[in-house]
């Protein structure tokens, strides 16, 4: 089956098996391997990408569901020579170790900061009538779908706080 | 280079690059998704087919028949290889379970077939069509029922070790303590599953894989495939987490090679995440009895630690008593390890094997004993510190600052604010508690080699089969070469994980940093002498700094030495008997504050501090990350991690990350780490030791002790989950 969608600003047309996940379409067909396959069933967050502005687990989504949509992967956020500010903050704060969950963490971090700016509440939001703030607990709660087994959480929190302009 | 005397002053001591908090040199690749992991290497060989591994549906039995007709006829299928196609493949010395071959099933999800197809979806679908007839056999799956009959475990560590007369000393001690603790089976649960791309060229095979120990992988692939080691190349530049789970060859590599041979084209294989729990290895559960006899003023006179774990035939025990032989003073000592036969998947190394589980028990016992004595647990540990190996008092520790770690930690953490009476501090709905534990892990030295090239423009390239599993090897190796050759960090390129490079220590047992950089040091010493001679300078006098070399008033650019071509030097660090003469270990003080909801029992970790004494810290930034990551794993072990055993069907039930819970962002607060300013000239020319496992050892007990201090409920069976303490919480109304 053919799917036409936009990946990192580039129009793509792929012929894929209907069983092909968005994750495998990116990694195996487009060879955009920055998006990682960890658990492959929605439990670890390593495959997080941004689809039409919202973060999703690419492993839980079939490629053919993305007809006409816009997908942003880690490769679309920055390059080694031109880093996104969140990528630079992860490097400065050592917000990673083995690096395998890192692209997912960064995609999530960028989306989380946007969600907070957009006023979307979370489980940790104490006052649902007030605008959520980028507090430590608010960000940690929203990042909790992205597992880092190396345990870089404390450093990721500092990287995100720096980008959000708040105290860690 | 032979290292058989304590290190004197050397170029590393300049600390121009080494010892500085340094961003990872591969950071731009990892954060942009451009660092290539095993399964992603589309560029290394064309025409890669997809393999999917089938695991045994039973834990023990004999395969009568495997029907592959449905799979063979499935669309896109190129080849099917089953375990009945060959006899058992020989295994390497560190594996207990067989990886493939033959009809006998030793554990659940043991690999029994691989399906190779043109696409991943086709391979997976065809794999589901394989039908297996197995005559099942009954097995042993419950450690608790095997304890009574478990024999002593013979292995590297003596199974029964006595010093003095424990029994008499314990019987006559004025204060005695005797408790039993359990730790569960735990999973490495690294983010990247085991994965390999295999390609044959005639009789030679290349494996692009994810493995911590390149030389072992090469050796064991050769053994399994019955080909000479020189016909095997292994390449593993990026590894998405290992924690010991990728120390030894696993089924992904063997089956990729077999699948590729059968398919006649390169094959890529990744184990599914559920296979991590039952197909690969885990940290084995333990049952540990600890007895402490002391004088009324708190001096330990007798200490015993006895542990039982289980494993498959050929597997070893979880060496949970190791630290108890070294950590505290006391004239009369007893340690023993027993090993039961279990038909669960193979128990093997997971981050700090032995000490991680052992400290989970020992450091609760120390907390309990201190309370029984009416002593502060920090003071009790300090009182029983030893500066010599308690079993061999003429053998000193090379460097041991446990007392300072505890004292400094207590000051920084505000330990004096702790109320020693449990369940006495309340903030609103929360019960607040603080806990402490010592941290302890040995420093192991082992031969490690490297090659250093000085090329055009003074560019330095380091090549070694050392791996970086997130530990920061790339960066500390670059720092070492930059320091030795007097160049900037950016002038150094580092190539890791390729079996064509000199054999290194590899990544395991927190030995990687010290040994691998010492190997680079050795190669750089050789290169410095070669450069000096090339430039006509006295090698003993030459000074390397700022991209220049000078001696006797003469001065050259480093690149001048390459005018006739690249200079290449290779060497290895090899150790004498300093690790026999001295006990080399690393130490920490772990401090934790928890809040426990007085109504629901929910435990929140609020503050964590580790103070570490671990020799020279080569890169304080990545070393700190190693420690906070280990502390995070320690929280997991304390509060949530447990592979649940199905005792009738014989497997780990919660074999994914939804059922096997590990800490997430919301569980982990800001963490503080302090490294004592320390060098250990006994360990290597780098004067460094390891920290990656030290950061884990003791943390879980500090959490457990904090929960006790908060609630007054002592849980001796990890993990500390609600079912074990909720109905014992203090009355709230």
TrEMBL record, chain B:
Gene3D superfamilies in the record: Aldehyde oxidase/xanthine dehydrogenase, a/b hammerhead, Aldehyde oxidase/xanthine dehydrogenase, molybdopterin binding domain
Annotated transmembrane regions: none
SMART domains referenced in this protein's UniProt entry, alphabetically: Ald_Xan_dh_C (SM01008)
Record GO terms (molecular function): iron ion binding; oxidoreductase activity
Record-annotated Aldehyde oxidase/xanthine dehydrogenase a/b hammerhead domain positions: 32-138
Record-linked InterPro entries: Ald_Oxase/Xan_DH_a/b, Ald_Oxase/Xan_DH_a/b_sf, Ald_Oxase/xanthine_DH-like, AldOxase/xan_DH_MoCoBD1, AldOxase/xan_DH_MoCoBD2, AldOxase/xan_DH_Mopterin-bd_sf, PaoC-like
Top-level taxon in the UniProt lineage: Bacteria
SUPFAM superfamilies: CO dehydrogenase molybdoprotein N-domain-like, Molybdenum cofactor-binding domain
Name listed for the protein in its UniProt record: Xanthine dehydrogenase family protein molybdopterin-binding subunit
Organism per entry: Gluconacetobacter azotocaptans
